[in-house]
Amino acid sequence: MDIAALITWVITALGGFYMLGTWLSRGGVKAGNSRLPVPVIFGHFALAAVGLVVWIIYVITDKDVLAWTAFGLLVPVALLGFAMLARWLPVHRARSAAAASGAESEPAERYFPVSVVAGHGLFAVVTVVLVLLTALGIGGS
Fold first, then answer.
1. Beta carbons of 120 and 12 less than 8 angstroms apart
2. pLDDT at 139 exceeding the cut of 60
3. Higher pLDDT pick, 6 / 101
4. Which of 32, 67, 80, 125 is most exposed by smallest CB count within 10 Å?
5. Containing domain of residue 106, as a range?
């Protein structure tokens, strides 16, 4: 199950990298109109990256404390992710209204594809569950 969690975590990270790249390339930091706070975005990214490194070390060493550490890191990652989702949803819902009005100053997160957001969230939930089950010793490692 530890390898399955690693695979889902990497897939989740790829979706996150795509959205971060989209956000940055569309002026997320510079434009000043993003609904996603910079500290939340980079905190989410940093904690998830550190957690992934801890998980990789866990997979190599099989030390239970590392599995719990990775899970502990995933809790704030998930909370920050839910916060960003809650702030992204109104932007997504307003995209047709903005297109109709010809608004030029759209938030950078308006360009996130729904499929990437949904896939990132789905794989993130699966990752959290797999990491927790592995830390609990359920399913073998």
1. yes
2. yes
3. 6
4. 32
5. 2-135
What pLDDT, in 10s, does the model give residues 83-105?
999 999 988 887 656 555 555 57
Tokens of 105: 């100053």
What is the total residue count of the chain?
141
Residue 140 domain flag: no
Whole-model pTM: value is 0.89
92 in a structural domain:
yes
Overall number of domains in the chain: 1
Residues 128, 1: contact at Cβ < 8 Å? no
3-class secondary structure per residue, the chain: CHHHHHHHHHHHHHHHHHHHHHHHHCCHHHHCCCCCCHHHHHHHHHHHHHHHHHHHHHHHHCCHHHHHHHHHHHHHHHHHHHHHHHHHHHHHHCHHHHHHHCCCCCCHHHHCCHHHHHHHHHHHHHHHHHHHHHHCCCCCC
Phi, psi of 64 (to 5 degrees): -55, -35
What type of residue sits at position 48? A
Is 63 inside a domain boundary? yes
**111 near 61, Cβ under 8 Å?**
no
